[in-house]
Structures are given as structure tokens and as C-alpha cells.
């Protein structure tokens, strides 16, 4: 849960743009992990498998009524060979993504077995 859930605007109308931007910045601060870094650290190369794991992790949050925007945010990353889509993930988003990754990958299997 982020700090912004505890912020309550005192205005009866829509909060000002500045307050909304501040709340957005605080939420974004919690998204500390990049999906491309996760691929690199797990020594994986298939972005489509990672996207599938993220989708399953996203669905876990939806099923549990956990606000997905606090844990998953699509981003565009500029690399030498162009612009790539990726994800920024919170700690929970990262955890759920690894948990839902391909269990035949040795590091993922080790992580899943460690949880037992």
C-alpha cells in the first residue's frame, strides 16, 4: 500500500492538478523495478514469456482487488536500437511476476521451491 492511499484532499471538489501530480509521483516512487532488468537478472531473453507472467500477476491483483496501477505501469524505454515497451513494477508486482514465470527456468523453479 502506498502513502497516497493515506492522503485525503480537504477540498470537496476535484483535487488540484499539483496535488494529483504529487500523488502520482509518490505512487511512481514505489515502482522500483523494470521488467527489462528482471529479464537480465533472470538471464532470460523471451520478452513475450515475461509479458505473459506479468499478465498473470496482474490478474492475481485484479482477483484480490489490489489496485494494479500501484504495482504495474507500462513504460517506454529508449535503447540503442529503438524504443521498447516495458513495465515498471513494485516489489509486489515483481514478486508476483517471478512467481508466475515459466517454472522450467532454473532460477524461477528455485524461487518457487524456496517459497515452500
How would you portray this structure in words?
This protein has one domain. 47% of the residues lie in helices and 16% in strands. With 116 residues, it is an alpha+beta fold. The relative contact order is 0.16. Strand 2 and strand 3 (82-89) form a beta hairpin.
For the record, the count of structural domains works out to 1
Strand content: 15-25%
For the CA atoms, what is the radius of gyration? 16 Å
* Sequence stretches where pLDDT stays below 50 over 5 or more residues: none
Number of continuous helical runs = 5
- Strand order in the largest sheet: 1-3-2
Q: Describe the largest sheet.
A: 3 strands, antiparallel
SS class: alpha+beta
Molecular shape = globular
Q: Percentage of helical residues?
A: 40-55%
Walk me through the topology.
Layout: H1 17-29, E1 33-34, H2 35-41, H3 47-63, E2 72-79, E3 82-89, H4 91-99, H5 106-114
Antiparallel strand pairs: 1-3, 2-3
